[in-house]
Amino acid sequence: MNKNYIIPNEWAIIEEGFNVENVEASESLFSIGNGSMGQRANFEEDYSGKTFQGSYIGGIYYPDKTRVGWWKNGYPEYFAKVLNAPNWIGIRIQINATNLDLNVCKISNFRRELNMKEGWLGRSFKAILPTGEEIEVHAKRFISVKYNEVGAIEYSIKAVNFSGEITFSPYLDAGIENEDSNYNEYFWETLKIVEGVNQGCILAKTLKTEFHVATAMEVDFAINGKNVAATHISIIEEKALTYTYKLKVSQGETATIYKFASYVSSLNYEKGNLIEAGFKNVTEAKNLGFAQLFQDQKDSWATIWETADIIIEGDIKAQQGIRFNIFQLNQTYMGTDARLNIGPKGFTGEKYGGSTYWDTEAYCIPFYMATKDASVAKNLLMYRYNQLGKAIENAQKLGFKNGAALYPMVTMNGEECHNEWEITFEEIHRNGAMVYGIYNYVNFTQDFEYVVKNGLEVMIAISRFWHQRANWSEVKKQFVILGVTGPNEYENNINNNFYTNYLAKWCIEYTVECLNKIEEKYPQDFKRIVAKTNLSGEETYKWIKVADNMYFPFDEEKQVFLQQDGFLDKELIPVKDLPKSERPINQKWSWDRILRSCYIKQADVLQGMFLFEDKFDKEVVERHFDFYEPLTVHESSLSPCVHSILAASIDRMPKAYEQYLRTARLDLDDYNHEVHEGCHITSMAGTWMSVVQGFGGMRVWENGVLSFNPQIPAEWKSYSFTINFRGNVLKVYKSQTDCKFYNESEKELKLMVNNMEVIIPSNQLLTV
Amino acid sequence: MNKNYIIPNEWAIIEEGFNVENVEASESLFSIGNGSMGQRANFEEDYSGKTFQGSYIGGIYYPDKTRVGWWKNGYPEYFAKVLNAPNWIGIRIQINATNLDLNVCKISNFRRELNMKEGWLGRSFKAILPTGEEIEVHAKRFISVKYNEVGAIEYSIKAVNFSGEITFSPYLDAGIENEDSNYNEYFWETLKIVEGVNQGCILAKTLKTEFHVATAMEVDFAINGKNVAATHISIIEEKALTYTYKLKVSQGETATIYKFASYVSSLNYEKGNLIEAGFKNVTEAKNLGFAQLFQDQKDSWATIWETADIIIEGDIKAQQGIRFNIFQLNQTYMGTDARLNIGPKGFTGEKYGGSTYWDTEAYCIPFYMATKDASVAKNLLMYRYNQLGKAIENAQKLGFKNGAALYPMVTMNGEECHNEWEITFEEIHRNGAMVYGIYNYVNFTQDFEYVVKNGLEVMIAISRFWHQRANWSEVKKQFVILGVTGPNEYENNINNNFYTNYLAKWCIEYTVECLNKIEEKYPQDFKRIVAKTNLSGEETYKWIKVADNMYFPFDEEKQVFLQQDGFLDKELIPVKDLPKSERPINQKWSWDRILRSCYIKQADVLQGMFLFEDKFDKEVVERHFDFYEPLTVHESSLSPCVHSILAASIDRMPKAYEQYLRTARLDLDDYNHEVHEGCHITSMAGTWMSVVQGFGGMRVWENGVLSFNPQIPAEWKSYSFTINFRGNVLKVYKSQTDCKFYNESEKELKLMVNNMEVIIPSNQLLTV
């Protein structure tokens, strides 16, 4: 069963009542982060029930030795994993002599709130301990957006029915493990534990990758809101540092601990300076004080929401869903560091290793591009540009030559680290997403300079790959691409995946188009690039031959492109005729049965029509939608958004809305029964697209024109969203009766709305 | 580079000179066994160099937790592994105070001999120890065929240049590991260590499977060949028992230890009786004495060779090769226990888990059937019959119904335990081999009663599988079988593998043929089987519809059946045009590249034509041979034999001979650079077929007729082989000029030779 315990609220994720069954799911849903670090909503105090601990630092990973059955030539040696980092939130609590553990106390008034507007996590409850003491706890924490190495906790305990002693034992612990460790190994080595006055620090390093991380804390106390001094005794263990403070309270009094913590890493500091840097951070935080840090946090989030918010009226669950998606996307990636990227689970879990997938280019770039400064999307492109060398090496390992590049399926540092052959070696369509990301960026920003300076090199390497990867079929008298896995991973090692072949052809054509443009308009750069890549006209001629003669499987009778050769040999039984007891098929069926079935995990031919909507007539899209949608099980989180957008584009609003709900509340309602492992961050960008590109019908065309075709689901009163379009802020409002555009920028904006040209003067509201 | 150090000899495998590089390869090649247990040729004394220890007991396995990257639904929980069993051969040696270790001594006159005629392993060498003592060692050991739980060692040391003390420390050690353990776990738990007078025993059990095994030893000593008494001190460790005996020797004297050892297991005894049984075995062995045991061993092997030997004149390497193959096959499986089977590496290594593969039915049955009593082949069939329930369960796990069975790809107890989806779930052609094994057996033995009593149930369950596994293609208007892996594992998840489709159709047809025959001739049995399997005429009608309308990919232009749909889309570059540096492709190319290439790992379409040669005209076979042979890389040990046989059948003797050499000396010359991991036992049965069915052209047709078409490679003077045909012993001799048949049996034999009917009276020699 899906979960259904999150209380609808416009700006917050709220849980009321304590249910041990929901602890791990809530740990995912209530995660906090600031793009540089993140933290699952684990309790500060001890908890003896089932819990999945997770603290993460962007860019700090471990190359866990690959686990496979039978080794195949070319497999990567390791799978890079985002690391569960040293615990900074821990505060062990004793009431008189009894340890506070929600698993053994009688709990009432339990409430958890993730305040998305202001960026903090709150928790409150009443507990009666086994020894009879009753307490009331209010805890609040956040990870600062402004001071991006700092987290802060305010943890208050009211002595309801007793006078006595409350012991706070804030600690740091580097003795942590990854749940998904392949061989149950430790990933961290503790190097140094340093004590100060009310402050402490653990320096640890990751094994193999040798990242050094200092985790620092400093604490402060109050009774009834008034600061008090407190002294501690320290317990230094092999991998942990604990300070124990005992505070006397009378019945009715409230004791509070403030814990300020910081991660600093060798990504940003000299290794020798880390302890000092950590101490500096926590001392500054303590000096600012919790209240000031908290105010800064509210301000930071207010700024973020200004250009990112989507308001939905008349459907509070939809409102909560979209804001949760936008909130988590911002918690995962802020775009200020080109070394970081967007892991499919962000900082909310371990699965998928926290690594970079094609999700970034195919799903996430539009969101970050349209809600933030153009530099953010550019940083995402630069991430791949900086890894081009590794992508070329990766292709070499697979037998490609002459600077051909195959970007990895999964990576931390540019090296491939996924180890299922049918994905790693065969899901090569990802290479197309790399070029599409550039295309998308250039259309949106009109920053063609990026292509000139960086992008073209990537595109050349990828076109080389496609040219070499295709082969001439004597039978078909066309070029074919054999042995691939398309976006629909419920097919493996197939021939002539429509999506892959289409992208291959398009990549070559777009590369040649850019080459020609650069040759003409940037002759110096053209020379530089040609020299650097050793490119000849003869070579590009060969590419074009492949692109011009690419084969696409097509059925004349049905007039549809086939997902792959032989697709129509399958038994085509619509998903609706599958017994419920057999779904999701990935949990009920063996892999071979899935593979030979007609069921589609995620948009594949339709993914192509979504990316290149301008290349297909509406009736073509309709025909393909009607053929493939009934066979699609959407067991990938990345599928419903694409179907939602395409459905809107062919005026199937009920279907668009159905698929929207599935993507928007995927985690909140736990559609896939796996939210305890973490949230589906990258699919959240798809949710954003479902509103803006789906209902809003926003497109940016190759000629740079921005267009809208706003529609609204029957279930909503109105919705509005904001676009940062080449530095101009545009708000779009759509209700059942109205459609308004508000241009907040300094200059007039020219748009297409419902195929009509519209010009909106600066700072004007226009009703269309 | 291939290895080339084995000295050619008609009856022995000989190594001269000590080379640390060859130690592990020799440990495989010089392995000994008796079908119930086996032992790699590890040294008795300590050896600090690289070595791969292996002692194995038939039927004793461990379910090692599966290791995969991403778990797929339906994967088996474990991979059953043949276990490295407690060490029984160990004798630590000290000369005065110095340990004997060939890795640190100066070695000369090193010689190793595996005497295949008599079934023993000998080793001799001179060693100068680091402390200066010079010794001459002669060691001999064997695993008794007659007393099949017993092994015996004679180990003599001559004091060449000193008088002093020789310490013999015979030991048993249950603290052993499997090299291929997935998670470096111990598979054994030591339960009890028992001491006696010059005898000792360790009782240990396998974890999870709870097999109990007692390993017992008893020792005896001689000086200059005369028995002497000796007393020991014992060292009892957690998992090992060592007795230390010190013998005084004068210069020139020889001290000898006899070590008799025994494995007894809970497969054959009550757990409580194992220690007693082990002691009984070793005491009886000691009382018989090494010399008598050794004589028994020679006698046993003489009997085996009587009906199994193949004599080749004029090519000593070919002679050595074929005898090595026959010897190892007999060491692996004697056919007396229907619970045992033939692991691809027999008792010579760990790889492939010592489990049962389709190799047994597709390759091994003919050898055991024609060189041993018919009960042996029947035991192999009964092994599968007894596992039918598990095969039905296995199919259920994959979504099949109504008693359909899918036999496992790899098994110890009937449960599937292989965990690569492309093999486990998709290499379903193995199901066809199960039926083919029955067909083969019935043709050869004319024992149709087996079908009535057992075989038909297996065939019904398998026909059900094929019926359910095929689906109707609306496009092709025929039945297709999608998503399979054929015998050529260099293709995965393909559609309409010719071999698989052909076997599916044939299985149904043969089942229906047997059903009809049984209905007519054994009406009571028919009723019983129909009731037991709940079979209806309506169901068989559906099977027949599938068989009658099965699709086979075929190219009109080339007039060849295609290995699978789309095969001709590949670039067809013959193997001979592949640079040597890129071979073997499974070590040089990544998996995706192999998959999309045209290269064939092992006979596939040709495998079908080999199994059903009578169904294809010679010119059809020629055409397919000429199409597929140039694309075949033979990177499976099971491939060359099939090509050799087919080549002979179409009069391509040079090609047949080339492929014969490859199969016959695969391990001796280490073609695949992996003999150190163990020998390719099951492919050895293919070598036997290459001579008997290939050069000898032996066939047994559906009507029960035995036929020959003897040819001889230009390189040989003559060859001869023996066939046990329905209890009649027939010797076939072929030279460049002569072809003779000698009927050793009590009644006349009717054969077809070169398509002519020949009758050979009892005990007569006939020249044809």
UniProtKB/TrEMBL annotation, chains A, B:
Species of origin: Lutibacter maritimus
Lineage: Bacteria, Pseudomonadati, Bacteroidota, Flavobacteriia, Flavobacteriales
Name by which UniProt lists this protein: Maltose phosphorylase
Annotated signal peptide: none
Domain Glycoside hydrolase family 65 N-terminal: 14-266
Domain Glycoside hydrolase family 65 C-terminal as annotated: residue spans: 698-759
Family: Belongs to the glycosyl hydrolase 65 family.
Binding site for substrate: W358, D359, K601, Q602
One Pfam family it belongs to: Glyco_hydro_65C
Location of the Glycoside hydrolase family 65 central catalytic domain: 323-689
